[in-house]
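Pilot study result, target chain (368 residues):
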Amino acid sequence: MNPSSILGRYLIKQIVFNFLAVLLMVMGIVFMFEIIELLRRVSERPDVDTVFVLKMAVTKLPRTLELVLPFVMMIAAMITFWRVSKSNEFVIIRAAGVSIWGFLTPVLFAVFVLGVINVAVINPISAQMYEAYETLDYRFKTKNPKAVLFSDKGLWIREAIDEDKFLVLQAKSIRQEGNILLLREVSILEMDRNSQLLKRVEAFAAVLDKDEFELKDVKVFEAGKPTLALNNVRYKTTLNLERIKENFIDPEAISFWDLPATIRFYEMSGFSALRHHMRYLSLLAQPFLFCSMVLIAALFALRPNNRRGGVMFLIVGGVGTGFIVYFLSQVIFAFGLNGYIPAFLAAWTPALIATLISVSILLHLEDG
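Predicted structure:
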């Protein structure tokens, strides 16, 4: 069935409306529980006001919703299919010669587009809000209303200068003032690709401004040469404020569009980018996972005759199956995150298996 046909547009309207309705309902429930949990955490903190609690709840909400979004999509699809079956519209559509695949095509098209919109448009907004939440949470833990999202353990970071040399930079303290990053007690190790030390640079302080580090009160140690004391030393760098922030935030706080550049940077610098790579692949697979959840819903909610009974059994079965698929997808993702299985398989296996099983059963029912 053509999604742009009258019937196709009707089915698209139904699935989109039900998805938004279920999403708003789940959003309200999640927000309520987030508020309760945050109020419990701040119950002994008289310095934290209600506005701060609301900010934390609002900024964390998109990340929490993203975790349950496939399940929300499945429930919305089940409601759509149940209504179409209950009103006998499904029977009429089948009697008109439309196969079950023709019926599902507009729905799958709409769901896939919703998944693409979520990844391409909503995810960058969600990432920014989650980063804001982590900053607020850091301020809450440090009891510093002006603190930014940096670790009190300092900074360790590695940067590739060229094919033959890389730097390992360590700072004992780090803070942000405007667009400038201030570091204290900085140590830079210049090493070759065989991890042999070429030079060590110690500085009392450093400033990262645009594309260079400016070191102050510097001592340079190099084998076979006397210690060199300098007032200022400048280092060109590809690091910036956002890149260093990414050392202290989760991949979930990085936009889908920024993840490829982040992965390339980590790989060039010799860091493991597995978490970011897994995050990127899971976002790419998300529209397909949404479609697989719709196919699971079709197995249980698309019935040509609702008079046979057992509706509650089918609803519980559908919800239970969707939950199992969602749970297994999280388990497989964890396996990929720990390197037990390849990242590509960990990200795509849940959607692929759920789709193949659902299509096989629907083909059997269609032939029957």
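One observation from the pilot: Strands lie at 155-160, 165-177, 180-192, 197-209, 212-221, 228-236. A full batch analysis is planned for the follow-on phase.
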